[in-house]
Amino acid sequence: MVGVGESDLGITGLSIYQLQTQAARAALGEAGLGFNDVDGLATTGVERFSATAMAEYWGLQPAWVSSTMEGGSSFEFMVGAAVDAIRSGRCEVVLISYGSNQRSAASRRLGGVPEAHTPSTQYEAPYGVLSPLSLYAMAAQRHFHDYGTTGEQLAEIAVAAREWALLNPKAYRYRAGSITVDDVMASPMISTPLHRLDCCLVVDGGGALVLTSLDRARDMPKPPVRVLGCGQSTTHISMSQIPDLTRTGAVEAGARAFAEAGVGPQDVDVVELYDSFTITVLLTLEALDFCGPGEGGAFVADGRTRPGGTFPMNTNGGGLSYCHPGMYGVLLLVEAVRQLRGEAGDRQVQGAELALAHGTGGLLSTHGTVILGVDR
Predict the structure, then answer these.
(1) Are the beta carbons of 76 and 230 closer than 8 angstroms?
(2) Of 41, 146, 191, 262, which sits 20 to 30 A from 125 (CA to CA)?
């Protein structure tokens, strides 16, 4: 990875195309490249033929494209595909980009009822669940039942995210001030047991990454960040078909990424986990073997994941307090790269040499783990 970038974040009034262009220009600029240098393009969330549509908008005719749509984990999937495409010689410079104007365009139906787009949805839609919120709430309720996890333990995840956001001027909640566990618990209950502050932001935003071969990367302006391992998993599309409400496909995705990278959880210096909801983080910590099943609540206690804690996590403020533009996975990777390059400012994790980014898509449906390291 030789360049990363963000678009404007928040309530922008911009189109998806404009947000993607902002992020892509920033990422390409870091790499000392322009759009004409791009011969591989991966994006999603635009419309049908997402990569084709963005290629036309930018005047490109790339040799390799991907419009993978796996929800919030799409971009971790794309990194694995881009690495393979570069190694095989199908292309030399891959641009991965994303943008969403869901807040400005009011395009996201908050608490919408699932559409009957798959046969299994018939087991959910008639009950009027708030999608995806109630389905994540089911997983939280099951975790409470099985392991004695509490709402206060989930709330600590939101509190830690806000503390990191207060160190990030680009975070949507940068000026909103700290929150406490009591604040989270006192916020409105949206779907038991998840409160409003257990839920991610709904804002505009976008991000982009540029990848190329290591030999070429070493001649570019920024120090390259190496892709050491990638892992993927998909388990279901409808919550009624999930194999286990508390054991997600991140178990397999993480194991594959760690094996490819030749490292283990104990080696990771900074962790960026998809936090659509606080329960998403708890389940992912356990699945990636940072702690055992049922131990997530105790693991995040006592400020462990806050700035200054022993386990730096979601260091930009995460989807809970930084930005969640529909699909957040690309921004996990942007932050991981910045941490490894030592460019995170007040939120910098000192000595960070190995980072993990994990995207979650759908209803705990798809999982992509990427392990990144500094170039030695």
Answers:
(1) yes
(2) 146
Residue 231 in tokens: 């892992």
| The one-letter amino acid at 24 | A
Cα 271 from Cα 311, distance rounded (Å): 8
Please name which of 303, 293, 275, 292 lies closest in space to residue 142, comparing C-alpha atoms: 293
Amino acid (1-letter code) at residue 346: D
Terminal CA-to-CA distance of the chain, rounded, Å? Answer: 14
Which tokens in the block code for residue 76?
A: 């971790």
Find the mean pLDDT for residues 297-310: 97
d(CA 94, CA 80): 12
Q: Are the C-beta atoms of 82 and 40 separated by less than 8 Å?
A: yes
What pLDDT, on the 0 to 100 scale, is given for residue 112? 54
Does pLDDT of 246 surpass 60?
yes
Alpha-carbon distances, residue 265 vs 155, 246, 270, 338 (angstroms): 24, 20, 10, 20
Strand 93-100 with 225-234, pairing = unpaired
Helices then strands, counting H and E runs in the chain, come out as 12, 11
pTM of the predicted model, to two decimals?
Answer: 0.96
Partners of residue 372 on adjacent β-strands: 227, 355
- Measured CA to CA, the distance from residue 251 to residue 233 in angstroms comes to 8
Type of residue numbered 245: L
| Separation of alpha carbons 229 and 10, rounded Å | 32
Neighbours of 256 (CB within 10 A): 18
pLDDT, position 55: 97
Cα torsion 76, 79, 85, 88: sign: negative
Q: pLDDT category, 117, cuts 50, 70, 90?
A: low
**Region 5-17: what's the mean pLDDT?**
96
**Of 99, 128, 93, 133, nearest to 19 (Cα)?**
99
Q: What is the CA radius of gyration of the chain?
A: 19
pLDDT of residue 109 exceeding 60, the answer is no
- 179 band by pLDDT with thresholds 50, 70 and 90: very high
Catalytic residues: 274, 322
pLDDT band at 131 (very low <50, low <70, confident <90, very high): confident
